[in-house]
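Run log, item B.
One chain of 76 residues. Sequence copied directly from the ordering sheet:
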Amino acid sequence: MREEEFKMERENLVKVGDTVHITEGVLPSSWYYTIEPAVAMSRNYKFSERIKSTEGKVLAVEKTERGYFVKVALDE
């Protein structure tokens, strides 16, 4: 299992236990991921770090001074 973090701008868009759909976006030299429908975004990943899963389960939603962070468990 792999855990990744996504940044969410508003609260209550997802909750612990939700199954979320993840899509991949491409930049010139990296990749990023979005929890659909545009709920939260990941950091940028190098080719060797790419996420292969298209679904995950929300493990936690944490509120910080910088916003909300969603931890997602992926089957990889």
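Observations after the first pass:
- The two ends are 5 Å apart (CA to CA).
- The longest strand covers residues 55-64.
Flagged for discussion on Thursday.
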